[in-house]
Amino acid sequence: MPKMKSHTGTGKRVRVTGKGKLLKEQANKRHLLEKKSSTRTRRLTGVVEVAKADVKRIKKLLGR
């Protein structure tokens, strides 16, 4: 049987903490920022925890 390989793209986008939580950057902060309000762009900064519904799928992609 071949080895399971982790999805490299997911590995670049998601970080696993020491306790096993999954952290990611928020979307909508890359381009077309002129039309977005300062409040909105400020709210989108920083990292957030991955949604509970997605955790199982992302852990599988990471090979965990």
TrEMBL record:
Keywords: Ribonucleoprotein, Ribosomal protein. SUPFAM superfamilies: L35p-like (SSF143034). One of its GO terms (cellular component) is cytosolic large ribosomal subunit. One of its GO terms (biological process) is translation. The keyword Ribosomal protein applies. It comes from the Bacteria. Transmembrane segments: none annotated. One of its GO terms (molecular function) is structural constituent of ribosome. NCBIfam families: rpmI_bact (TIGR00001). Belongs to the bacterial ribosomal protein bL35 family. This is Large ribosomal subunit protein bL35. The lineage of its organism: Bacteria, Bacillati, Actinomycetota, Actinomycetes, Micromonosporales.
